[in-house]
Amino acid sequence: MNRNLTLDADEVERLDRVYREGGLRTMASPHIHYHEPACPHPGCGHKMEWIDFQLELFGDLEGIYKPLVKAWWEGSGFVGRCPSCGGWIRFTTLRMEPLTDDQASPHLKLPDHGRRSHNSARSLTLHLERRTT
Ligand SMILES: [Zn+2]
């Protein structure tokens, strides 16, 4: 979402709600551009400006795609690990927030993209890489 700085917080939240309602209706695959793209964990700074979560690549419509897509458009978002520092991040349509292990535990999580088992599926490692185009 391209927001300029003259919008106040209420307006940003109103527009975010409209945006999310549209996405929820169509169950659109989440992708996002963050204006503050650095990992929110102190000392990391890993840039995640454009993220395409590519949830469809998990091939699990009922178990993964639908619940995560729904959480995204309802505004609660989901959590995943920063590919650089490994810290938990809560991703929403508005921002990235740093979470501790305890804070992350009640949230829906992005499945582990096989950082440990590289032969699972090559495509699954793409989820947090920065888009180049
Ligand atoms: Zn990080």
Task: Tell me what you see in this structure.
The strands form 2 sheets. A 3-stranded antiparallel sheet has the order 3-4-5. The protein has a two-stranded antiparallel sheet with strand order 1-2. The protein has one domain (29-126). Strand 3 and strand 4 (88-91) form a beta hairpin. The chain is 27% helix and 14% strand. It is built from 3 helices and 5 strands. Mean pLDDT is 84; it is low at 114-127 and 129-133. The chain has helices at residues 9-26, 61-74, 101-104, and strands at residues 31-33, 50-52, 78-81, 88-91, 96-99. Residues 39, 41, 44, 46, 82, 84-85, 87 line the site of zinc ion. The site of zinc ion (ZN) has 8 residues, from loops.
Give a short overview:
By secondary structure, the chain is an alpha+beta fold. The protein has one domain (29-126).
Number of self-contained structural domains? 1
The description of the largest β-sheet is: 3 strands, antiparallel
Q: What's the end-to-end separation, in Å?
A: 17 Å
The helix/strand class is: alpha+beta
Q: What's the shape?
A: globular
Order of secondary-structure elements: HEEHEEEH
β content, as a range?
A: 5-15%
Q: Give me the Rg, rounded.
A: 15 Å
Mean pLDDT: 84
> Strand order of the main beta sheet, please?
3-4-5
